[in-house]
């Protein structure tokens, strides 16, 4: 690599999404030299790439934004209950400009490797533009859902029309007017984009393998009064979010599901239904633990969905029957099920009639051929570990992170890995991550990492490294907590089931956001219990 340039700094951050942007700001405030590498030409991370029609966040906009700066919180005004991708991206670019973050970010640059020098305990990071930078600390803010999956369907590359992936949507948008469109995939991305595509397309064929639970967002513009009230009470809203199970200011019903009367239960489900979206799975505290409780939620759900689908046979296909409700992330939609009442929309169960191949003119299932002008792949991600696996991360004794994780990711607190001193993960496996509000989660992780770095500096240490024992214990704890819930019953991306050959491991800490934060604080307060603190040699 003769053209490589080399320099040396304190911190390298990979990724300029919510985590990376805050890391840059926070490390700078701490007086450290820091650089961010971002593959995209702009900030935003997942919100830069996932701009398919209908893309919105399923966490309320008033909660899905930075809490660290009261000034930012007061100055920005969200327009809708659930923000669109473009509004979130506007917010992130606004924050980047306001905090002068762009000067610290190298865009259009992908990190290809990160290699530890065991003698100096420094990392050398190499990019696809052949730049090499060494740093004391590397922070992987690479995002849990940033490695899109393209299905291995024979003939996909022979298709004569246009192929789009929801996670790589063209920036100029796509006009499907008059087109015959096929959408493969009915997870959150499919569920959000299908209603909008249906409004444009001449004909839309939805190729569904597994039906998903989806709860209407109940999205609407925020009123001036709501915004004023939220801004006046942000401290309390945030306090509740930090102490919650998922990083939002909503608490479960005070009774357990079966302790409530049928009327109380119905009223509680109805209230959550109107709140909209993913939090339906937290109506009652025991809903994800007790199958009887879960079944109550599922029955309520089924009634709601059957009521809006005209054709009972189509309803039968759209209602999941293979996993407890909430054990895969509940989708958040606007008119998803109603879309199947449209005369130009057909549901194709590829469970019943599998896709066999794609040719120049369309998709062939075991039953028939569908002539198409465009195919949309809403086929998801190699979640949690996919992006990290693409970076050649080499720690002690030449050990590669990807090899160490071949039987499932191994971390301590989702923050550190044994054998990889001074390498930090943001919202990585072993943390609540996607089970919580990802903005607050990223803030919590960056705060913890910055405090740890400050502690090392104050006490004359060169490095911090999770011990193998702490990792083993943490993973065992994560597994034990997961096994006590209904989550492992589903073939979800939480367990890697959507990626052929991926180790089946529940990759998240499911004990709740507040509990997790308490554990992280306790670890730090005890002088970084479970980590080795190393002096420079
Ligand atoms: O991906 P998914 P996603 N043939 O993996 C199907 C977040 N998110 O991008 O279930 C046919 O959920 C696959 O079928 P099956 C959110 O956390 C949030 O939609 O494997 N079908 C499934 O239906 C979410 O959970 C928001 O049988 C194939 C679909 O593709 C996560 O991202 C919005 C197939 C993939 O669904 C991932 O969501 C968007 C094949 N060969 C995303 N391969 C919000 O904030 C795959 N499928 C609202």
UniProtKB/TrEMBL annotation:
SUPFAM superfamilies: FAD/NAD(P)-binding domain. Its cofactor is FAD. InterPro entries: FAD-binding_Monooxygenases, FAD/NAD-bd_sf, Flavin_mOase-like. One of its GO terms (molecular function) is N,N-dimethylaniline monooxygenase activity. Keywords: FAD, Flavoprotein, Monooxygenase, NADP, Oxidoreductase. This is Cyclohexanone monooxygenase. Pfam families: FMO-like. It comes from Mycolicibacter minnesotensis. Belongs to the FAD-binding monooxygenase family.
């Amino acid at each position: 690599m003769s053209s490589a340039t080399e320099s040396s700094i304190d911190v390298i951050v990979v990724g300029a999404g919510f985590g990376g942007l805050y890391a840059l700001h926070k490390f700078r405030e701490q007086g450290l030299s820091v650089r961010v590498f971002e593959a995209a030409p702009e900030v935003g991370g997942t919100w830069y790439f996932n701009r398919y029609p209908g893309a919105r966040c399923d966490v309320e906009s008033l909660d899905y934004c930075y809490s660290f700066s009261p000034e930012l919180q007061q100055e920005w005004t969200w327009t809708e209950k659930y923000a669109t991708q473009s509004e979130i991206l506007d917010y992130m670019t606004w924050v980047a400009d306001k905090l002068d973050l762009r000067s610290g970010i190298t865009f259009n640059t992908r990190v290809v490797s990160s290699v530890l020098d065991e003698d100096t305990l420094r990392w050398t990071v190499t990019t696809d533009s052949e730049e090499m930078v060494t740093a004391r600390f590397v922070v992987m803010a690479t995002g849990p859902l940033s490695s899109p999956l393209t299905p291995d369907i024979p003939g996909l590359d022979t298709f004569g029309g246009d192929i789009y992936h929801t996670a790589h949507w063209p920036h100029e948008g796509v006009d499907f007017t008059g087109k015959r469109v096929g959408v493969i995939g009915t997870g959150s991305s499919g569920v959000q984009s299908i209603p909008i595509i249906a409004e444009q397309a001449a004909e839309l064929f939805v190729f569904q393998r597994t039906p998903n639970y989806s709860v209407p967002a109940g999205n609407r513009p925020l009123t001036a009064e709501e915004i004023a009230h939220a801004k006046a009470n942000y401290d309390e809203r945030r306090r509740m979010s930090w102490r919650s199970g998922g990083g939002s200011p909503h608490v479960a019903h005070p009774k357990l599901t079966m302790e409530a009367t049928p009327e109380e239960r119905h009223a509680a489900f109805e209230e959550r239904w109107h709140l909209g979206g993913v939090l339906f799975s937290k109506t009652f505290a025991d809903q994800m633990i007790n199958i009887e409780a879960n079944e109550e939620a599922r029955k309520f759900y089924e009634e709601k969905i059957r009521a809006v689908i005209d054709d009972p046979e189509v309803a039968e296909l759209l209602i999941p029957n293979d996993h407890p409700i909430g054990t895969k992330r509940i989708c958040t939609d606007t008119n998803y099920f109603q879309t199947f009442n449209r005369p130009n929309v057909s549901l194709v169960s590829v469970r019943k009639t599998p896709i066999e191949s794609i040719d120049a003119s369309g998709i062939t299932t075991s039953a028939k051929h569908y002539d198409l002008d465009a195919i949309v792949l809403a086929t998801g991600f190699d979640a949690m570990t996919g992006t990290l696996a693409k970076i050649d991360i080499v720690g002690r004794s030449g050990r590669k992170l990807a090899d160490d994780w071949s039987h499932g990711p191994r971390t301590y607190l989702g923050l550190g890995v044994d054998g990889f001193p001074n390498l930090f993960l943001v919202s990585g496996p072993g943390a609540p991550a996607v089970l919580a509000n990802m903005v607050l989660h990223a803030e919590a992780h960056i705060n913890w990492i910055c405090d740890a770095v400050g502690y090392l500096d104050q006490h004359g240490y060169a490095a911090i490294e999770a011990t193998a024992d702490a990792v083993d214990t943490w993973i065992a704890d994560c597994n034990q907590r997961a096994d006590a819930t209904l989550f492992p019953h589903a073939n979800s991306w939480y367990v890697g089931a959507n990626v052929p050959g991926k180790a089946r491991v529940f990759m998240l800490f499911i004990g709740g956001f507040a509990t997790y934060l308490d554990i992280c604080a306790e670890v730090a307060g005890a002088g970084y219990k479970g980590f080795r603190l190393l002096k420079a040699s």
